[in-house]
Amino acid sequence: MTILVTGGAGYVGSHMAYALVDRGEKVVVLDDLSTGHGELVPSAAKLVKGDIADRKLVSRLIADEGINAIAHFAGSIVVSDSVADPLTYYDNNTVKSRALIETAVAAKVEAFLFSSTAAVYGEPGADLLDEEQNLQPVSPYGWSKLMTEVMLRDSAAAYGLKYAALRYFNVAGADPAGRTGETREHATHLIEIAAQAATGRRNRMEVFGTDYPTPDGTCLRDYIHVTDLIDAHVKALMHLLNGGENFVANCGYGHGFSVLQVVDAIKRVSGVDFRVDMSDRRPGDPPALVADSARVREILGWEPKYDDLDTIVKHALAWEDQLVKGRVKL
Ligand SMILES: NC(=O)c1ccc[n+]([C@@H]2O[C@H](COP(=O)([O-])OP(=O)(O)OC[C@H]3O[C@@H](n4cnc5c(N)ncnc54)[C@H](O)[C@@H]3O)[C@@H](O)[C@H]2O)c1
Ligand SMILES: O=c1ccn([C@@H]2O[C@H](COP(=O)(O)OP(=O)(O)O[C@H]3O[C@H](CO)[C@H](O)[C@H](O)[C@H]3O)[C@@H](O)[C@H]2O)c(=O)[nH]1
User: What parts of the sequence cross the membrane (predicted)?
Assistant: First the structure.
């Protein structure tokens, strides 16, 4: 089997590339390296620098490499940037995904996996979010992803495209073998930032908002280890290629941790007591996002292996430590 992994030089996509290579599959990574790093792509995979909307390039890759399936991770991911510059987000996440889907349909690709997000739910009222919640994103990022879900749904109905859209909650941690991890130039994610504070790459961090209607006043999130998330992708791919139904499903564990609980975990696991300042709310942050993960478990028989905050944090710290010590060069 040959899989085209778009965004495979990024955080989540590079873990997928490793997981597929580890299984003995052939992998072609297509990435424009706008936020990704070629060094994160496994050497056994082929890295092609290019844009997902380059129809000529993608059609040629599908034909020449014998691509069976596409795992589409490429995109722009910072919610606040999408508020400041929505058209760029609609272009990169929606318009360019449309081009990629069109190319995939024309080439009769057998399966298409899409990275969606909990941001499609907006500010839900429920404690546990199942997939039938209202879809009312509160950011252009969320809308840009929801529109891609809609294009996939309609392309499945009209052209018979086989697809799965996985709505990730908060992806965290790193490859337990230390081969790849989160390495964005301008970190925004809580665990990466706290890990940078613990390893001395920054001298302080902020907690955004302490007056939310949550037990300790800080936001609750469902942190899923990237390796468990990727296991769901591999299972989803097999499910589709074996004739399983298309589906949309949440990927999370079903329990939330507050910002302060995450910061405590990083301090406990690292043994470093870094400076933490309480700050105002960050615009666009819903108080709580926790997945009802029944559907993904049922459809794929998915069972997480790393559902433990200390383990997630330990792997994130180990990756950050390699970066700090220069053992990984980017
Ligand atoms: N990290 C999370 O917590 C999270 C949560 C929900 C959904 N997601 C989704 O998962 C996917 C991967 O996110 P990530 O955290 O790995 O981000 P990332 O920025 O590390 O990876 C995205 C990759 O896509 C590449 N890329 C961007 N636009 C491209 C284009 N037009 N053509 C080719 N390559 C392009 C980038 O260079 C980068 O390597 C994204 O679609 C994101 O929306 C991530
Ligand atoms: O330095 C920081 C960074 C984050 N936070 C807080 O930590 C929580 C988690 O924030 P992240 O930035 O780590 O993650 P988000 O929940 O904002 O975003 C994640 O989930 C979204 C879905 O809601 C999108 O999919 C997005 O791409 C993905 O990173 C939020 O309450 C945020 O305010 C801090 O207090 N300090």
Answer: none
- Give catalytic status of residue 253 as yes or no: no
- Fold of the domain built from segment(s) 190-221+254-324: UDP-galactose 4-epimerase; domain 1 (3.90.25)
What is the model's pTM?
0.97
75 Cα: distance to centroid of ligand 1 (angstroms)? 4
Q: Is the CB of 92 under 6 A from ligand 1?
A: yes
Give the domain ranges of the chain.
2-172+223-251, 190-221+254-324
Q: What CATH fold (topology level) applies to the domain 2-172+223-251?
A: Rossmann fold (3.40.50)
For the CA of 191, the nearest atom of ligand 2 = 13
Does the model's ipTM exceed the 0.85 cut? yes
Mutational pocket test of ligand 2: of 83, 196, 208, 250, the residue with most ligand atoms within 8 Å of the beta carbon: 208
**pLDDT single digits (tens) 80-107:** 899 999 999 999 999 999 999 999 999 9
Q: Is 115 in the pocket of ligand 1 (CB under 6 A)?
A: yes
> Long-range contacts for 37-43 (Cβ within 8 Å, ≥24 apart)?
37/9, 37/183, 37/330, 38/9, 39/328, 39/329, 39/330, 40/9, 40/10, 40/11, 40/14, 40/180, 40/183, 40/330, 41/8, 41/9, 41/14, 41/17, 42/14, 42/17, 42/18, 42/179
